[in-house]
Fold each of these.
Amino acid sequence: MTRLSNATLSHVPVMRPTYDRAAVKIGVVHLGIGAFHRAHQAVVFDAALTSGDLRWGVLGASLRSPGVRDRLEPQDGLYSVVVRDTVDETVRVIGAVMGVMVATEGPAALVEAMASPDVHIVTLTVTEKGYRLDPVTGALLEADPEVAEDLADLVKPRTVPGFLVAALRLRHQRGLKPFTVVSCDNIPHNGLRVRAAVLTMAARIDAGLHDWIAAEGAFPQTMVDRIVPATTAADIDALETRVGYRDEGMVKTEPFTQWVVEDLFAGPRPAFEDLGVRMTAAVEPWEEAKLRLLNGAHSTIACLGGLAGHRFVHQAVAVPAIRALVERLWDEAETTLTPPPGLDITCYRSELMARFLNPALQHRTRQIAMDGSQKLPQRLLASCAARLAQGQGISALALGVAGWMRWQSGVTEAGEAFIVDDPLAAQTRRLVDGADGDAAIVEALLTLEAVFPTVLARHAAFRAAVTDAYVRLGQIGAVAAAAQGGTALPEDGT
Ligand code: CS2
């Protein structure tokens, strides 16, 4: 078995770095180095290196698990991106990742690395939970035990805001510029959110530091898009059979990739505009369109398809009723959007459906259903609220919301039990178990303020539509419920 590494790189029969890796400087630290970063932002930094600008090597950090480090270290950070469209597969070795650290094993070393004068950018994919912000108010969760520990002592940070503030403090003390913090999480206003977390923590620690970050720091908004299903052991074996080398760090993805970034940087950045990144002053319309169309549909397909027993997204959307439901959901969500110049929603929708139908991705419905409580607000509830405010119906969106509610019981329609992988799982379980009958379960789940904004939870038409959808899901199952149009909203919309 030949393992991918610097020593074997020149023999691998696929596209590989053409730049001198030994001359690459680490200009980016990435927090949360999962498959998504490796298939998305790291590919762009790799393109920057390929263009001859060697300032943009990446030091990855895992926040807790050593898994990625253990896979990539023996490979000198090298890994393959396997791009699968419906029929073809291309493989490219990415050389941008120069090393991986595990935050919990050496928090002070990670802070030191982030304070390097060569580092100009810190990118993040730490999921909704990683920011430690209250989902309702957006305020830093100061009572969270790890946040409290960071507020008391930042020598060995435990949280993402803690690492950012500790490293910025060191840079401030050393007379360096702040790095630009680029959140690449799929959440609305990601830049503003990470900025709020950092500034609140900094203010509690040192007012001067807070003022310096507020004045000199930069936290651009971004929209990121690429479907990156979790890699399986079978994917790694198949790649080895095909190309003759073993790569424990490979990622698989689709041809489509998009990164929209607010052009707001505190220091140097790669020539992103030459690397396929869309630089803009207004990311929000892109972000809303992506969250409400792509991700809204994804979460709906995940829960309904998963309940109906479909393991993969492409299988679920191959069912005509589910595909038709997705189209109706898009009809509803589309009216809530203001598409940015350059986004043709009709083309976007048909491209999206083709992406979902890609059978080569093997994207698991359960992977997408994970952390649903954190995803629902921006993916489905925002569209519901906007439509109800206009007196418009929400029957397709309501079915998606009800699908999430049914998911909380942890059993498919065929009676197969599964684990609800969600930070609020214990709470939703208690609510479901403590309620008697469908309507009571819906009412109970609607009390979750972290998920449902109070105004929406009290909205009679919203409750009626979600309850109706929930009951139908129980009575006739996801596919038959998707095949029905749903109930229309009363004309006055309340
Ligand atoms: C998915 C996303 O797992 C999920 O929640 O909806 O990861 C989705 O694949 C990406 O946002 C696509 O850009």
Amino acid sequence: MTNHPTSLPGRERPRRLRRTGAIRDLVSETMVGSDNLIMPHFVLPTETGTGEIPSMPGILKNGIKPLLDQVENDLGLGIKTVMLFGTPEEGTKDPVGSPAVDSNGTVPRAVKALKERFGKDLIVMTDVCLCAYTDHGHCGVVNNNGVIENDPSLKHLADMARVHADAGADFVGPSDMMDGRVQAIRDELDARGHNDVGIISYSVKYASAYYGPFRDAADSSPSGGTRESYQMDFRNSREAVREALLDEAEGADILMVKPALAYLDIIKDVKTVTQLPLAAYNVSGEYSAVKAAAERGWLDEARVVRENLIAMRRAGADILITYHAREALKQGWL
Ligand code: PBG
Ligand code: ZN
């Protein structure tokens, strides 16, 4: 018997829609472009100077001046949003993370400089968390028994957010995973007249080994213990929906799932229960793994980066926070 097309069940031929590049583009469902990308920045407590991050090739820590230059360049590529992570002056870390609420600290200074130079052309978001500023490296305050205390941490986080808002931040991004911090921050911002400063909440943040390179960069590793009593257990997904809905109820404007690639199912789950914009954080370890394999010639970086970013969007992320943003746009990978 000859193999005749009409013998195919239902005569379905999906390959018709894959025959040429133009047809594939025509029926493509998912796009990623500069409008939806956020570039993270590590900010040093200095005016000048930069530092390399050995585990994150292509990413620098920058003092204020090189930061401004970098952001100007990135704006030229279409990157209109930054997420700032600060590092305090040497020797200033303490148990409650005091340098985090210094109105003349690293992040407030950077925010002021960025808003002065770029105004409304740039959306400035700041990470709000204590771990880079506490001597113990935890995201909240710790009691004598080594317990990370929830409610006493809220005031510090709200103060930190207000200091960033005072400096001119457009959005603050709490990444600490204390219960009730979105509401505490919303209340503090509103009480201080910052009604229009938004909250991009790290709503669904798992205790992940993929944060390793970031902790080197931000010098924010806990000196004792782990973050498992506040960040989420990656065996759970119903809890992700619960956290997302709580943050929405507490007043978050944008929700986030973090990390991204091993959590595409979570992105999809959260997307189905919220009308808020959803961000995915393509974290440091996900970046470093791709860079390391690409450096060895084991992966085609351009194609892998595009595939990863598209996958996050396909899963339901509206916004992508990714260290790949600059290079992907510069090289035309998207
Ligand atoms: C601070 C914070 C972390 C990241 C973002 N904010 C580290 C952590 O929770 O240990 C991770 C980002 C990345 O890995 O790129 N709480
Ligand atoms: Zn933290």
